[in-house]
C-alpha cells in the first residue's frame, strides 16, 4: 500500500536533527512526515553528553552553534544551562586557536582568552604544555531528550506526522518522487531529508547513494557523588582529548577512541583505564573520585572522513537533502541546520553559508580535520 502524493517531504530520523527539521519544514507549510525506526531521541541524541559551544574555528560551525544556542536559550523546555566551556590548548595549537577566537569575536561570540593560571578559577588542573586557555560563558549544555521532544511537539502542532517504530527498508526514485518502503506501507514524497544519524550511510545505500557516514562508539563514564565547591563547566583538554563536566553531584567524562568504529555495542570498560590515565595527568584530584558503573553509558557518533557534517542537497539525486554526519556536533547545530534545510527545501538561499559542509567537498579536496570535535 502506498500513500501517493500525500507528502511534500519525508524526513528519515527523529533524533534532534530530524525533529527540528520537521518543525521548520512544517512551519513552511510543507506536508511533512517523519519515519523513525524506534522513538524520538532513541539513538545518538538521547546518549549525547549534550554539550553546546560556539568555540569553533570555522565561520560556518561558529554560526550554526551561535544561532542554535540562541534558539535553545529562548526555549523554556530545552534544559539549556550556560555553564560555559573551558578549552585547554596545547602550545602547538595555540596560534591557530587564537585566530579562531578572533573569528568568534567578529561573529559575536563572547570568548575569553585566559592564561593557564587565570583559568584555574574554573577548575584546578596541571598547566604543563599549554599555550593558553579559552572560556565562553554562553556555551553549556541542554537536555537533549527533552529538547527533541519539544521539537516533536512543535512539529506536530505545525501539522507534521511522526511514524515511530517504522524503519525504512527500501528507497527508490521515479517520476520526480521518492518512494520509501517500510514493513507497513510505502510513503511517497518529492523531497527526502536524510537525518538518520549514525545510520545515514546505510539509508543512502538503500537509494544507491554513497554517503560517507559511519558509526563510532563513544563512552561516557560517570563518577560517584563528589563534594565540589562549585559545578565544573565543560572542560576539554585538546592535547589528550579528555573532556569532563559536572552532572548534578557527579562528573561525567570521556575521551574518543579513534579505533572504535562500526556497530559495536556496550560500554567498553577496557577504554576506562587509558581515559582515566590521561584525565588524571591533567586533573590529579580525580584520583579521589569513585566510578559509578550503573550511571555510565555509551552511544554512537555519526562520523565523516573530515569529522564535519554533510548538509544540503545531494548532487545527482533530485530532491534529496542531507542533514547528517555531525561527528558529535548534532545537538550543537540542530536548530540552525533545521532552518537551513527548510530554506533549501523551498528554494531559498540559506541564512548561513553551508558550502564547507556540502557533499561536493569530498570530490574537491583531500580530507583532514578542520575543527575540534568535542
UniProtKB/TrEMBL annotation:
Keyword set includes Transmembrane helix: yes
Keyword Transmembrane part of the UniProt annotation: yes
Annotated transmembrane regions: 6-26
PROSITE patterns in alphabetical order: PROKAR_LIPOPROTEIN
Domain (FAD dependent oxidoreductase) ranges: 8-343
Keywords: Membrane, Oxidoreductase, Transmembrane, Transmembrane helix
Pfam families xref list: DAO
SUPFAM superfamilies xrefs: FAD/NAD(P)-binding domain
Protein name from the UniProt record: FAD-dependent oxidoreductase
Source species: Deinococcus radiotolerans
Amino acid at each position: 500500500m502506498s500513500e501517493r502524493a500525500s507528502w511534500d517531504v519525508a524526513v528519515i530520523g527523529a533524533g534532534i536533527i530530524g525533529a527540528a527539521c520537521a518543525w521548520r519544514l512544517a512551519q513552511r507549510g510543507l506536508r511533512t512526515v517523519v519515519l523513525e525506526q524506534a522513538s524520538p531521541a532513541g539513538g545518538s541524541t538521547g546518549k549525547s553528553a549534550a554539550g553546546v559551544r560556539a568555540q569553533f574555528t570555522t565561520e560556518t560551525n561558529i554560526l550554526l552553534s551561535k544561532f542554535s544556542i540562541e534558539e535553545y536559550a529562548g526555549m523554556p523546555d530545552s534544559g539549556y544551562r550556560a555553564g560555559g566551556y573551558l578549552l585547554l590548548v596545547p602550545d602547538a595549537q595555540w596560534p591557530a586557536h587564537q585566530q579562531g577566537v578572533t573569528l568568534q569575536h567578529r561573529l559575536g561570540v563572547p570568548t575569553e582568552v585566559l592564561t593557564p593560571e587565570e583559568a584555574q578559577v574554573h577548575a584546578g588542573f596541571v598547566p604543563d604544555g599549554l599555550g593558553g586557555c579559552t572560556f565562553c560563558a554562553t556555551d553549556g549544555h541542554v537536555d537533549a531528550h527533552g529538547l527533541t521532544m519539544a521539537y516533536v511537539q512543535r512539529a506536530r502542532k505545525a501539522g507534521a506526522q511522526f511514524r515511530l517504530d517504522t524503519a525504512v527498508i527500501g528507497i527508490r526514485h521515479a517520476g520526480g518522487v521518492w518512494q520509501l518502503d517500510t514493513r507497513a506501507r510505502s510513503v511517497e514524497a518529492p523531497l527526502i531529508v536524510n537525518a538518520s544519524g549514525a545510520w545515514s550511510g546505510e539509508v543512502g545505500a538503500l537509494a544507491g547513494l554513497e554517503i560517507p557516514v559511519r558509526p563510532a562508539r563513544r563512552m561516557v563514564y560517570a563518577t560517584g557523588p563528589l563534594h565540589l565547591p562549585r559545578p565544573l563547566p565543560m572542560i576539554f583538554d585538546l592535547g589528550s582529548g579528555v573532556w569532563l563536566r559536572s552532572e548534578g553531584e557527579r562528573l561525567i567524562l570521556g575521551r574518543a577512541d579513534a579505533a572504535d568504529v562500526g556497530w559495536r555495542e556496550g560500554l567498553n570498560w577496557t577504554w576506562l583505564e587509558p581515559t582515566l590515565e590521561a584525565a588524571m595527568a591533567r586533573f590529579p584530584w580525580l584520583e579521589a573520585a569513585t566510578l559509578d558503573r550503573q550511571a555510565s553509558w555509551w552511544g554512537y557518533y555519526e562520523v565523516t572522513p573530515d569529522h564535519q557534517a554533510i548538509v544540503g542537497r545531494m548532487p545527482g539525486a533530485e530532491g534529496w537533502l542531507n542533514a547528517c554526519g555531525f561527528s558529535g556536533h548534532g545537538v550543537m547545530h540542530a536548530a540552525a541546520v533545521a532552518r537551513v534545510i527548510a530554506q533549501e527545501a523551498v528554494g531559498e538561499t540559506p541564512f548561513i553559508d553551508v558550502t564547507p559542509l556540502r557533499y561536493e567537498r569530498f570530490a574537491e579536496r583531500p580530507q583532514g580535520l578542520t575543527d575540534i570535535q568535542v
